[in-house]
Amino acid sequence: MTEGVLFQVAALMLLACCAMCLYRIGRGPTPPDRAMAIDILGIVVVCFTVIMALSTGKDYYLNIGIAWAILSFIGVIALAKHLEGRWFDE
Q: Could you list the residue range(s) of the whole structural domain that residue 14 is in?
């Protein structure tokens, strides 16, 4: 396999994972399931930016991925705190 085909296969796999996460966000049975899908979607976006950085050779994609990972982490922590109060009736 050439390098370009490998990147395309990885991008297609991430796209399939993204579609499954969007389905879980829309049809998740419970709010914690939806929160987990949002977290996984953030990880998929970070992986996609890393693949873009490797395939194009441009370093700024890695900076975008790092910033996205930090924002995703903070967002998921805030969502978990919100769900903890509402979901566990505290």
A: 3-87
